[in-house]
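Researcher: Let's do a round of design. I'm pasting the structure tokens now; please hold your answer until I've finished.
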């Protein structure tokens, strides 16, 4: 059944390089916007940010799950096919993510909830995703980056939801903090660093993709600095102060 559904939508996920799939991307934007509107209607007592973060959680979970299957099961690994033409599954992931980032960037600008680093991340993501769709190249690398960027996002949203419901300062909150911090550092600066190194060295990767990857990595360093400061402040320095008091 899934195979037949995919075969039916396959023509909408393939097109010639040099064209932009306006209709497909517009459908993606509308889909994410409708999810947000639905949450606003069903969860009237919750804030607009609460509903937007539910949409963000959905996007992170869906994209991380599908890209994990692509990278670790279907294959091949992105560094084995640098600069290769996009497959339909790559286009599907890129369209889903592009629609989400257009929705979320618009929402963040209207609400004024995010800082410069996050807005820069969104703009750069929009440019790279759009470039991959138009040129129809490097779909494997781009979706691998989507995995690394989104795999920890559901944990980030869970932390916010726990805080919103007064359950953050608990053992569950501490466990999620540890998993989030260490998985964030591992995926972005372990496999992420290796992928960046191989991509920059490869002659098969487009210069635009290389530049975008380096800029995204630099933004990740900014995020990691903030995450590291939070972890040190809450779990290292706090524990040290408690130990000093006991002594």
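Researcher: That's everything. Go ahead.
Model: Designed sequence:
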């Amino acid at each position: 059944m899934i195979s037949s559904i995919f075969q039916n939508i396959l023509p909408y996920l393939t097109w010639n390089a040099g064209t932009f799939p306006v209709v497909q991307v517009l459908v993606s934007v509308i889909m994410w916007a409708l999810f947000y509107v639905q949450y606003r209607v069903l969860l009237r007592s919750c804030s607009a940010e609460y509903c937007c973060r539910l949409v963000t959680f959905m996007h992170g979970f869906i994209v991380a799950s599908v890209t994990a299957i692509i990278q670790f099961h279907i294959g091949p690994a992105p560094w084995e096919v640098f600069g290769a033409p996009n497959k339909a599954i790559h286009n599907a992931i890129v369209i889903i993510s592009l629609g989400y980032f257009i929705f979320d960037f618009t929402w963040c600008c209207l609400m004024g909830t995010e800082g410069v680093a996050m807005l820069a991340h969104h703009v750069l993501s929009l440019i790279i995703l759009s470039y991959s769709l138009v040129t129809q190249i490097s779909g494997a690398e781009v979706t691998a980056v989507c995995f690394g960027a989104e795999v920890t996002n559901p944990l980030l949203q869970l932390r916010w939801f726990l805080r919103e419901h007064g359950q953050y300062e608990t053992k569950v909150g501490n466990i999620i903090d540890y998993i989030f911090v260490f998985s964030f550092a591992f995926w972005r600066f372990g496999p992420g660093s290796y992928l960046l190194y191989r991509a920059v060295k490869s002659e098969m990767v487009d210069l635009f993709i290389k530049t975008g990857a380096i800029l995204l990595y630099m933004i990740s360093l900014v995020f990691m600095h903030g995450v590291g400061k939070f972890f040190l402040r809450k779990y290292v320095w706090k524990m040290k102060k408690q130990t000093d008091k006991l002594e």
